[in-house]
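PROTEIN DESIGN WORKSHEET
SECTION A - STRUCTURE
LENGTH: 489
TOKENS:
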């Protein structure tokens, strides 16, 4: 008898993945395909929407090619805040995906900005008025299509990546957005979990053009018209990638948070069943089932991006090569890298910040810069944890590709002064989405959850004393201050 499973899709910034997850949480098969990213102008980050879809289909095909059974359902974990517009009739993309890292709408956000508006945005949505979030990107795409004033004969759809994938999977039958993804748009009222008319008016995005907001384990429709899957497979769960990781790690109280180390980094801790605003970080809807679960989150714009950039600059292989070079020195010898390539995210929200390297001397080496690149990631995550006011946080669960670096994870524990627990499973976002799908199908969620399994995972304890930690953090603060000087100051 074939083992029942859910097909979990994980559409990230640089890779599309597919996992077949059995009822006991076992991964039966997996597939992946790269997704190209383009940087057509400084601060612009784009992807080809059709290439995103094709990569996801390729990953599905690779995963299902070794199985002889049809999945019981499909679940989705997706990159958040990125926006795509498409034709409601054909499903054809009407422009590029404007990536979550993209800062082309910074001037528009600054034009909107006032103390009163920033307060209103924060209270309604839990977010900062920043180009990372979806609404300014939606306005940009709709302006480009001449459709910002409203629906153009019902032909234009605009949404986040989950909306795009669900629409493609269901043959355009479903035009919905999962509530947690909707909470990252600057358009969702966190209290009512409905589109906010004042926010739609502020950003110039007609409420009528937006997809329907649904729960994380809602009826998203069923597959139709696909070569890679038969008709009638239900889409049973959707979560933004960071939310899926939080769910998969089993973080349900403020004592346990998670950091995802990808192209950027997301640090999130649960915040209960009622929204509450915290300065410098976002309040977001983690997921919505029978009742909402909120979270506090800070987003680092450049983490994996920073390490990849340093690897290219230093002429070494990204990942292992950079790690090995960084390990040739005991520390960064006072060198600091602030990778503000498109400005800074949480907790600074400063899109005018610029990338800087400080503390360089005649004795600085390639190894010191490599070490500074790794430390820049750990410092940025530590900044977010500080802003979260996470005094109750006892352990930070870690996932994502960069967690393969033992040096980075030890540095993270040292700068936090807290244990860091690296997940035993690298695909925790896809697994978290699958587990959300379990709740829809009535399957028992396995215990312990994948992200809670100590076996195969790695735990790092801080070894720096408080004085060393304080000195390192002060050096970083000085480098940040230089990064945040206005250009030409």
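SECTION B - SEQUENCE
RESIDUE ASSIGNMENT:
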């Amino acid at each position: 008898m074939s083992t029942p499973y859910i097909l979990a899709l994980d559409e990230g910034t640089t890779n599309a993945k597919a996992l077949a997850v059995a009822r006991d949480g076992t991964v039966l098969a997996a597939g992946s395909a790269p997704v190209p990213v383009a940087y057509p102008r400084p601060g612009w980050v784009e992807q080809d929407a059709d290439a995103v879809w094709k990569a996801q289909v390729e990953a599905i095909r690779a995963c299902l090619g070794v199985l002889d059974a049809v999945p019981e359902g499909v679940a989705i974990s997706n990159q958040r805040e990125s926006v795509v517009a498409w034709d409601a009739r054909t499903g054809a993309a009407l422009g590029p995906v404007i990536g979550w890292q993209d800062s082309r709408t910074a001037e528009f956000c600054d034009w909107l900005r006032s103390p009163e508006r920033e307060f209103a945005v924060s209270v309604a949505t839990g977010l900062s008025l920043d180009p990372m979030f979806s609404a300014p990107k939606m306005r940009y795409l709709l302006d480009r299509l001449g459709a910002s004033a409203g629906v153009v004969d019902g032909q234009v759809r605009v949404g986040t990546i989950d909306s795009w994938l669900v629409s493609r999977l269901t043959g355009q039958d479903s035009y919905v957005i999962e509530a947690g993804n909707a909470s990252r748009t600057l358009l969702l009222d966190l209290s009512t979990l409905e589109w906010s008319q004042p926010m739609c008016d502020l950003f110039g995005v007609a409420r009528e053009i937006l997809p329907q907001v649904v729960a994380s384990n809602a009826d998203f429709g069923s597959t139709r018209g696909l070569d890679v899957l038969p008709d009638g497979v239900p889409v049973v769960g959707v979560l933004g990638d960071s939310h899926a990781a939080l769910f998969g790690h089993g973080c349900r109280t403020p004592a346990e948070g998670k950091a995802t180390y990808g192209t950027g980094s997301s640090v999130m801790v649960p915040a209960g069943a009622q929204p509450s605003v915290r300065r410098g970080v976002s309040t977001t809807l983690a997921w919505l089932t029978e009742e909402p679960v909120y979270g506090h989150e800070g987003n680092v714009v450049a983490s994996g991006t920073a390490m990849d950039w340093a690897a290219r600059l230093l002429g070494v292989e990204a990942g292992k090569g950079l790690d090995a070079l960084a390990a040739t020195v005991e520390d960064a010898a006072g060198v600091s890298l602030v990778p503000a390539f498109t400005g800074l995210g949480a907790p600074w929200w400063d899109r005018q910040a610029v990338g800087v390297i400080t503390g360089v001397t005649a004795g600085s080496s390639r190894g010191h810069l490599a070490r500074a690149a790794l430390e820049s990631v750990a410092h940025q995550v530590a900044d977010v944890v500080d802003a979260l006011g996470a005094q109750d946080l006892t352990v930070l669960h870690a996932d994502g590709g960069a967690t393969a670096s033992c040096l980075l994870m030890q540095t993270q524990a040292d700068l936090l002064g807290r244990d860091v627990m690296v997940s035993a499973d690298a695909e925790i976002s896809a697994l978290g989405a699958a587990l959300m799908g379990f709740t829809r199908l009535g399957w028992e969620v396995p215990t312990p959850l994948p992200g809670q399994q100590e076996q195969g995972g790695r735990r790092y304890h801080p070894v720096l004393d408080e004085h060393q930690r304080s000195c390192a953090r002060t050096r970083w603060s000085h480098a940040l201050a230089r990064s945040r000087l206005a250009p030409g100051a």
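SECTION C - NOTES
The mean pLDDT is 90.
The longest strand covers residues 292-300.
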